[in-house]
Amino acid sequence: MAGEKALRLLRGQTLLEHALNTLATTCDRLAVSSGTRELELPKGVPALPDLEPHVQQGPLSGILAGFGYARTQACDRMLVLACDLPNVPPALLKLLLTSLSDQDVAFCEHGGQPEPLVCALRVEPMFKAVTLALSENRLKVVPLWKAARCRLLVDSDLVNLGSLERTFANVNTLEELSREEQARP
Fold first, then answer.
1. What are 41-50's contacts with CB under 8 Å, separation 24+?
2. 5-182 is a CATH 3.10.450.50 domain
3. Do residues 101 and 78 lie in contact, with contact meaning Cβ atoms separated by under 8 Å?
4. 104-155: per-residue pLDDT in tens?
5. Is 111 left (phi over 0), alpha (psi -120 to 50) or beta?
């Protein structure tokens, strides 16, 4: 992205602001996994650096940092939303939380492709699972989610969300960012 992806502008807001605004419709508390970076965040939104000894071990490091924060806030559930998915509707976040009923993980698969970084997680069981996986250098998210008590939402579960291509449009390059800027919100 030729710079910090989270701070790239899309329709007048950074990708990070899009994610925070979407999460704010559903969550009481917000925090941002910052890895080893320093990010300027809105007032009241803490940056969560990767926790030792699991620094820079990919997305699971950031999720572990989120669990650490959730535990200090006495939260039993946590939502994860990657900033490069700017079109995820609040209705999907609510559906993910509802889908946790007796599961520890709820995430989506669209067109046969997993979307593991828009998910709902039960904090205590998944904190243990993520910590163990990182300790064993197992860094892939999807196998970990599927090994847990998991609710996988597929296209037929998501039909009420509108265009799933749009919902899961991933912005990882400047070209994708430009295309998304030109698309109708």
1. 41/16, 42/17, 45/20
2. no
3. no
4. 999 999 999 999 999 999 999 999 999 999 999 999 999 999 999 999 999 9
5. left
